[in-house]
């Protein structure tokens, strides 16, 4: 990479394009293949031919890998079929039987499930730490991973990643970060000391609710083991999915700006509602994580939470059901708005909330239309016991 690094807005547009080898087409086409033919036996020697077998990569997957590598500051990248697989592949590339991991208590639920079942069976011990807690006293001689997510799933606590990385590295542990909320555009994971950065490309990278894909990017010290683990487990992402992710990537910067703008407008509006007791969104000045967010992040995405005053389950359902623009469903990061009551699970402490916590993904619709929809929801809520 040259010393004149392009801005992320430019990288997402220009990176990973292979027009010269594809008759000038702007986008690398979808290569659907298992077998790749060799002209002769001599060409089968390692490195003689750029592509050797579908699982091991095609021009389509290589285009996406190159683009992401550039966005992640020159890191090595592997593509996998889902965000959750990016989590498990990153962990398995570092951990061994008998090791110990520290994992944030605000972690994505299925990540916790993997630690508590599969990793436990393989002889790996997990300790959950409250987001914001000092991790130094929790480190054990066999602690090999500190697994962070910032902001946390459902509750949006910001963590001091450079401070955590300093402590973990002094101890010889690797720092893994699920950076799905921010994407590499809004938080430079490797630049802040993260060894393995994880992205559920299903969310903002794809951006259109039509693909499950994930990636892990590694700094130099972690690249070989990541590539080995990825290869040994037979992982790849399909040509069609890589194409969709690349297509999403081209508009990522402009979409994120709009998601942030609408989330800020919606949270400002919600903060003034008598039914709302708290907003969970680090881009707001009154958020406990705001100072660190401002120091480390370049912006906020469109996913946030808020706490309602205590209401009955029926009243909560009346609020959420019947929205015109907000869909009820898992995942987020697509063009469309979503709403979902949050089920918060904690073991290192408790998440204090008197009323229900609701999560919103602010989509690309008009903010005023979204507010009108929420206003109707509050009318339904207030009209229900
Ligand atoms: C959605 C999500 C994942 C998992 O992505 P999938 O593609 O659904 O497997 C991982 N981490 C976070 C923070 C997520 O929000």
Helix content: 25-40%
Whole-number tally of structural domains: 2
Total DSSP E strands: 11
What fold name goes in the CATH topology slot of the largest domain?
A: Aspartate Aminotransferase, domain 2
What is the spatial order of strands in the main beta sheet? Answer: 1-7-6-5-4-2-3
Small-molecule components bound: pyridoxal-5'-phosphate
Question: Over the alpha carbons, how many angstroms does the gyration radius reach?
Answer: 22 Å
pLDDT averaged residue by residue: 97
Q: Which homologous superfamily in CATH is the superfamily of the largest domain? A: Type I PLP-dependent aspartate aminotransferase-like (Major domain)
- Cα distance spanning the termini: 61 Å
The number of helices is 12
The best one-word shape is globular
Q: Which spans have pLDDT < 50 for at least 5 consecutive residues?
A: none
| Structural class determined from secondary elements | alpha/beta
Sheet with the most strands, sense and barrel status: 7 strands, mixed
What is the class of the largest domain in the CATH system? Alpha Beta
Strand content: 5-15%
How does this model look, in words?
With 385 residues, this protein is α/β, with parallel strands linked by helices. It has 2 domains: 8-250, Type I PLP-dependent aspartate aminotransferase-like (Major domain) (Aspartate Aminotransferase, domain 2, 3-Layer(aba) Sandwich), CATH 3.40.640; 253-382, Aspartate Aminotransferase, domain 1. Helix content is 34%, strand content 15%. Strands 1-7-6-5-4-2-3 form a 7-stranded mixed beta sheet, with helices on both faces. Strands 8-9-11-10 form a 4-stranded antiparallel beta sheet, covered by helices on one side. β4 (143-149), α5 and β5 (174-178) form a beta-alpha-beta unit. α1 runs antiparallel to α2, α2 (59-71) packs parallel to α8 (239-249) and α11 (313-320) packs antiparallel against α12 (367-382). The longest helix is centred in the C-terminal third of the chain and has 20 residues, at 252-271. The model has no long low-confidence stretch (mean pLDDT 97). Pyridoxal-5'-phosphate is lined by residues 82-84, 87, 108, 149, 153, 178, 180, 200, 202-203, 212, 214, 331.
